[in-house]
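Re: zinc ion structure - here you go.
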Amino acid sequence: VSPAGDELTLDFAKALIENERLGDDGVPDYLGVSFSSTDYVGHLFGPSSLEAEDNILRLDRVLAELLAYVDEKVGLEHTLIVLSADHGGPDAPGYSKSLGIPGGYVDPESWDRESAIARLKREFNIDGELIEKYQHPYVYLSPQITSRSDAERELIERAVAEELARFPEVSLAVSSRALEYGNLPDTELVRAVLRNFNAKRSGDVYVVFKPNWFINDFDGLLVASTHGSPWRYDSFVPVVFAGSDIRPQRIHRRIFTVDVARTLAAYLGIRPPSGATGTVLHEILNK
Ligand SMILES: [Zn+2]
């Protein structure tokens, strides 16, 4: 949890460029580097913290050093640079509240003890836990209910989802069965949830917290902020293409990070990778 992580990554990237002889011949090479200190510093201190500001200053120096190294070894005129992020993040709730923005920490471990869930246990004759576990973003129900009939399990899952949806920190709760059957409103939020659903591997009830509400437990570590929501502060990231043959411009229409792979393939005139979705960013190709 320090900007030093990015400096180690920089050293590794330089050694890799050198020893793999990237950019040494006429065949394009691809180098992907993840500078991840920003993620950890953001979790521990919050994205608007002084620590995060200091980290970004140091990351800026690290990027400058990497680009200077690439310029020396390969030449930036022969290099296409793509800069992006896999997610954004919310501010720490204390800071958000100081700005009048509501938010807080969610504790799904306590949900099983809520009176609404206790009522469902009585209604469906369930001893012990009904909510066994929460693994973001899914609730897993007690293995007890797997012995119930399919129809009853569906009833229980739907009842749990309905109760969770009424919790003050919850924006949306929907059973995996409902996601599988697909008879849900075609909203942007539901489409985002569906992209994170796998019928074979997902839990029983998908939960979306309200904006600026999240779990502050990060693998057992108490943190200030956690990403992992469909809200704009988590999903809005920069996508920067830079190269000697790319015209300077800003694009304000909505694009997606999955567009990067398709655009790189088109730029190189090669087949996109298997499973690549998204669309080609024509602004990058119309030089
Ligand atoms: Zn993270």
